[in-house]
Design brief:
alpha+beta, Aminopeptidase, binds coenzyme A
C-alpha cells in the first residue's frame, strides 16, 4: 500500500471528519456536532493522509480517568484492507497510552466482521454484550460486543 501519515486533528477539522464519516458509513454526522464532541474533555481525533495529502480515514478517541475509548474508526471504502485501519488503531492506542490510559474499550456490532477482525488482530478481547445497542431506520436492532485491551504493550 502507499504510505499513510497520521496527524492529530481538532474541532477545526470537523468538516473533514464529517465528510469521511459520511463516505464510510453512508449517513451524516454534522460538523457542528463533531466539533462539539472534539472540544470535550479528553477527546481527540486522528486523520490518515495518503501520500498526496488527501484524508482517507480517521479514528476518534477519548481518555478519562485512566481509561481510553475508541469512539469511531473508518477508512474510505476504496482504501480498506491495506493496513490503514490497523495503522490508525495502533496510533490511537499510543495516543491513549500517552494520555495516561491503561485500558482501552470499544463497542462493535456483532455483524461487523471487518471491525471484529481488526480488533481481535490487535489484541482486543470480548468483555461484554449490549443487547439491541445499534439502531438503524428500517432494520432490526443489532447487539454490540464490548471489547477491551490493556495498553502499554503497543508496537
Ligand atoms: C473496520 C475498518 C476500519 C478496517 O479498516 P482496514 O483499513 O480495512 O483494515 P486493515 O487493512 O488494517 O485490516 C486489519 C485487519 O482487520 C481485519 N479485516 C479488515 N477488513 C476485513 C474484512 N473485510 N473482513 C474480515 N476481516 C477484515 C483483518 O484481520 C485485517 O488483517 P489482514 O488484512 O492481515 O487479514 C474498515 O473496514 C472500515 O472503515 N469499515 C467501515 C467503518 C466501520 O465499520 N468502523 C468500525 C466501527 S466504528
Amino acid at each position: 500500500m502507499t504510505a499513510l501519515r497520521i496527524v492529530e486533528a481538532g474541532p477545526a477539522e470537523a468538516a473533514v471528519l464529517s465528510a469521511l464519516y459520511e463516505s464510510a458509513f453512508g449517513e451524516a454526522w454534522a460538523p457542528d456536532q463533531l466539533a462539539q464532541l472534539l472540544a470535550g474533555p479528553g477527546v481527540f481525533a486522528l486523520i490518515a493522509l495518503d501520500d498526496a495529502g488527501e484524508p482517507v480515514g480517521y479514528a476518534l478517541g477519548r481518555v478519562a480517568a485512566g481509561e481510553g475509548e475508541l469512539l469511531s474508526i473508518a477508512l474510505l471504502p476504496d482504501r480498506r484492507r491495506r493496513g490503514g485501519g490497523r495503522l490508525l488503531l495502533d496510533a490511537l492506542m499510543e495516543r491513549c497510552t500517552a494520555a495516561g490510559a491503561a485500558m482501552l474499550f470499544l463497542e462493535v456490532a456483532t455483524d461487523n466482521m471487518a471491525a471484529l477482525g481488526l480488533y481481535r488482530g490487535a489484541g482486543f478481547h470480548e468483555a461484554g454484550l449490549r443487547k439491541g445497542y445499534y439502531h438503524k431506520v428500517g432494520a432490526a436492532a443489532v447487539d454490540a460486543i464490548v471489547m477491551r485491551r490493556a495498553l502499554g504493550d503497543v508496537g
